[in-house]
Automatic annotation (TrEMBL):
<dbReference type="GO" id="GO:0005634">
    <property type="term" value="C:nucleus"/>
</dbReference>
<dbReference type="GO" id="GO:0008420">
    <property type="term" value="F:RNA polymerase II CTD heptapeptide repeat phosphatase activity"/>
</dbReference>
<keyword id="KW-0378">Hydrolase</keyword>
<protein>
    <recommendedName>
        <fullName>protein-serine/threonine phosphatase</fullName>
        <ecNumber>3.1.3.16</ecNumber>
    </recommendedName>
</protein>
<feature type="domain" description="FCP1 homology">
    <location>
        <begin position="28"/>
        <end position="186"/>
    </location>
</feature>
<dbReference type="InterPro" id="IPR004274">
    <property type="entry name" value="FCP1_dom"/>
</dbReference>
<dbReference type="InterPro" id="IPR039189">
    <property type="entry name" value="Fcp1"/>
</dbReference>
<dbReference type="InterPro" id="IPR023214">
    <property type="entry name" value="HAD_sf"/>
</dbReference>
<dbReference type="InterPro" id="IPR036412">
    <property type="entry name" value="HAD-like_sf"/>
</dbReference>
<dbReference type="Pfam" id="PF03031">
    <property type="entry name" value="NIF"/>
</dbReference>
<keyword id="KW-0539">Nucleus</keyword>
<feature type="region of interest" description="Disordered">
    <location>
        <begin position="89"/>
        <end position="111"/>
    </location>
</feature>
Amino acid sequence: VTVQGGVTVSVSASEARRISTDLSSRLRKAKKLSLVLDLDHTLVHATGDPRAAVYCSSLANNEGGPPGGAGPGGGGGGCRRRSDVRTLSLPASEGAPPGAKLPPRAGHQPPTMRHFVKLRPHLSSFLSSVSRRYELTIYTAGTRSYADKVADLMCRHLVGARLDEEGLEALREKLRMAEERLEGYE
């Protein structure tokens, strides 16, 4: 089996049978089947193209709001006029061509690249429906960190969370500033 980063993992035939038997037993007890869903172009559309930010800004400007500003429809960051479009940051080195010049970052943080993720229509109701009958697994040809972040984003969407990664970071910064002000009163 080839896993993240092209690493190949081999298991013996007996270990493969044991894994298969354990999985089958667990699924039978839960009375479910296994369903593997491709992340990209099936559940979401994602892009790191900077033109997506321009598009989102033009939506905000056309509706009388500030570029990227909060407004009706929420979204929690990046494309706030579209509740189905969220943002996340990934290390810029992932997906960058070898030898690419990456933008500098302050401190010890690696450079990141903002991605826009559009959730497919009716994703929430679809996942709620199929999860009753299937154990869900997502597949992507992308990196592990991309898969983890998009899965987290989808889970937050399913429970109605309105903030994405950028919104959460802005909230953390506000909390940090409030804590600093409170420390000044002591």
